[in-house]
Write a structure and sequence with these properties.
Helix 2 packs across helix 9, helix 4 runs antiparallel to helix 6 and helix 6 packs antiparallel against helix 12. The chain is 78% helix and 0% strand. It is mainly alpha-helical and 288 residues long. It has one domain. The chain contains twelve helices and no strands.
Length: 288
């Protein structure tokens, strides 16, 4: 398989991940009514960590862990204990306050933050065409999710901050992978560290309970695979570009919202969907 076909394959992987993220977003919003954001973040993280441990037990690539040096572990620890844990808390707190559709739009500040952090952390840039396509798609996301009208709320601020953290996550993940660590190994270690961090917070601030374990099992399992897929893509595609392709995520949220939650899609939203899809097409046609 030549390089172009390989890159196109990972673009498809990202789009699949975006669809699963959308379904995850809808389910989270449905279940957050009865569960606190911290408990939800913790429960889903513990399930993802459990799946990560199972993966590490049976993967032949686990031997790479023995070869990781102190700097590798430092990056993984920062990503898991600080970046991802903080990002999850921001996401669930924001989602509990605003709609799933608004959340999907505001999270899309991630490719913009990824451009900034990619330049500072790994000296990686994207082309002018890719940047223009990114803003073109963001405009489409805005039309799709807000119909041109938007009110800034506390939940919105949390989600914007979560989107910035996602940009850091994409960049730091790519930096770790470029150091020679397999994406799935890195992802598994990070998920375990996130679960440990949130467990400490739950023991301090929450009344420990497993009454919602079925919901945690469903949502925690659902987020596990797209994380692996996304990280594999980050091994081949620049982090701002990955974040830009993920702009199709709000489109999937809108469609699933209509099918699952009975939300309507207007002609204005349809025009936003066209902008997103056409932007994704042009982006995939660009050379990495």
């Amino acid at each position: 398989m030549n390089k172009k076909n390989t890159i196109n394959k990972y673009y498809i992987y990202i789009i699949v991940a975006a669809f699963v993220y959308a379904f995850y977003n809808i389910l989270n919003k449905m279940f957050l009514v009865d569960i606190s954001p911290l408990a939800f973040a913790w429960g889903t993280s513990v399930v993802s960590a459990g799946l990560s441990i199972i993966y590490l037990m049976f993967s032949k690539k686990t031997k790479q862990i023995k070869k990781m040096n102190k700097l590798d572990w430092t990056y993984v620890a920062i990503l898991g204990v600080v970046v991802m844990s903080f990002g999850k808390l921001l996401y669930f707190h924001g989602l509990s306050l605003i709609t799933a559709t608004s959340t999907s739009f505001l999270l899309r500040v991630s490719p913009i933050s990824a451009i900034i952090f990619s330049w500072f952390l790994i000296r990686e840039k994207i082309t002018k065409k890719q940047t223009l396509i990114m803003f073109y798609m963001i405009a489409g996301v805005f039309i799709l999710t807000t119909q041109g009208q938007f009110t800034l709320e506390l939940g919105s601020i949390f989600i914007v901050m979560a989107g910035i953290v996602i940009g850091v996550d994409h960049t730091l993940t790519r930096k770790i992978i470029k150091r020679g660590i397999h994406p799935n190994i890195m992802s598994s270690l990070v998920m375990i560290l996130v679960a440990i961090s949130l467990t400490v917070l739950v023991l301090i601030f929450e009344e420990f309970t497993l009454v919602h374990w079925k919901i945690f099992l469903l949502c925690g399992s659902l987020i596990f695979i797209p994380k692996l897929i996304r990280n594999m893509a980050l091994g081949h595609i620049k982090s701002p570009v990955v974040g830009t392709v993920l702009l199709v995520h709000p489109l999937f949220v809108a469609v699933l919202g209509a099918l699952v939650l009975g939300e309507s899609l207007t002609l204005i939203q349809a025009s936003g969907a066209f902008v997103i899809l056409s932007g994704a097409y042009f982006l995939i046609k660009q050379k990495e």
